[in-house]
């Protein structure tokens, strides 16, 4: 396992006052820990992946809002790392009462990802590696913005849920990726980062590109095909074969893969610049060993 960007080995750090046995509920946070050379401290994971391959066989302790406190304790856990959530506050309090440190991190936005990386680096004496990782990601994101700055901006619909339809709105990292990759989010005027939207509004706004990540079960439709959107053939996205069915793990989980996600979004929005998406770009993301952040 690699140990982050700085080339330092674990023996270079004072680990006396840092957690040795970690349960991580969020895959985005797991990728950060892996990137900083801390994956060997992880003893349990959350219910929802994808996870680095080195972690996939670890005990599963439950979901974001309801990790099994007794199981966490049985694993001899020093610290639980989870996303910040109002619904999880009660279980976080129970864990802290049991003497287990809880780091509740906000990874829901782009800046939240960088702040979370900074906090993890500080807590685990990996501040230098965390800073170098953040700087590398920011440089790559800036380079992508320079490429797309003067491009035309087609209208993009990004679907995250169905029955009812939920879409990515303003202040979500997906909205950021759409803009960075040279698109215009048709839900940019929504009042929440992820919001329910009516079919009538979608049909009225006539998206030129549809990226649908709403299905996340075995056998879900994947690839560049109209799917059920063919019901509305007058939509520019359907008419011009610009409907993409993508596994949510590719672009929905905010984290240190943001630059990779931005380039993939570019393939959907501006394939003439970024190249056409490959078959694997639609499938569940596989994290092999050490996570490359940029």
Entry keywords:
2 domains, seven-stranded mixed beta sheet, 294 residues, disordered N terminus, Rossmann fold, 10 helices, 14% strand, four-stranded parallel beta sheet, 32% helix, disordered C terminus
| Structural class based on helices, strands and sheet pairing | alpha/beta
Low-confidence residue ranges:
1-14, 290-294
Question: What's the CATH class of the largest domain, please?
Answer: Alpha Beta
Q: Which oligomeric state applies?
A: single chain
Number of helices: 10
Number of strands: 11
Write a concise synopsis of the structure shown:
The protein has 294 residues and is an alpha/beta fold. The protein folds into two domains: 10-138, Rossmann fold, CATH 3.40.50.1980; 151-282, Nitrogenase molybdenum iron protein domain (Rossmann fold, 3-Layer(aba) Sandwich). Helix content is 32%, strand content 14%.
Write the layout of secondary structure elements.
Elements: E1 22-24, H1 27-35, E2 42-45, H2 69-74, E3 79-83, H3 89-97, E4 101-105, H4 110-123, H5 127-148, E5 155-161, E6 166-168, H6 173-180, E7 184-185, E8 194-196, H7 199-205, E9 209-212, E10 223-224, H8 236-239, E11 243-245, H9 258-269, H10 271-274
Parallel strand pairs: 1-2, 1-3, 3-4, 5-7, 5-9, 9-11
Antiparallel strand pairs: 5-6, 6-8, 10-11
């Amino acid at each position: 396992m690699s140990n982050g960007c700085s080339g330092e080995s674990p023996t270079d750090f004072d680990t006396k006052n840092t957690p040795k046995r970690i349960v991580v509920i969020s895959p985005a946070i797991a990728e950060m820990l892996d990137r900083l050379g801390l994956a060997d401290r992880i003893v349990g994971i959350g219910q929802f992946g994808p996870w680095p391959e080195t972690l996939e066989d670890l005990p599963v302790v439950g979901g974001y809002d309801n990790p099994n406190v007794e199981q966490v304790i049985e694993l001899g856990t020093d610290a639980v790392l989870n996303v910040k959530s109002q619904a999880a506050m009660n279980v976080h309090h129970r864990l802290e009462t049991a003497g287990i440190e809880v780091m509740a991190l906000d990874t829901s936005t782009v800046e939240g990802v960088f702040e979370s990386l900074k906090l993890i680096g500080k807590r685990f004496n990996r501040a230098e590696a965390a800073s170098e990782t953040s700087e590398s990601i920011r440089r790559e994101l800036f380079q992508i913005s320079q490429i797309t700055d003067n491009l035309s901006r087609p209208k993009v619909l990004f679907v995250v849920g169905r029955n009812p339809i939920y879409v990515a709105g303003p202040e979500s990292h997906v909205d950021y990726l759409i803009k960075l990759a040279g698109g215009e989010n048709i839900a940019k005027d929504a009042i929440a980062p992820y919001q329910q939207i009516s079919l009538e509004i979608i049909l009225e706004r006539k998206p030129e590109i549809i990226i649908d990540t709403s299905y996340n079960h075995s056998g879900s439709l994947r690839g560049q095909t109209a799917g059920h959107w063919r019901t509305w053939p007058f939509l520019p996205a359907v008419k011009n074969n610009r409907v993409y069915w993508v596994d949510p793990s590719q672009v929905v989980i905010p984290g240190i893969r943001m630059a990779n996600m931005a380039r993939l979004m570019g393939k959907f929005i501006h394939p003439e610049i970024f190249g056409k998406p490959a078959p694997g770009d639609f499938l569940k993301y596989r994290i092999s060993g050490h996570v490359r952040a940029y």
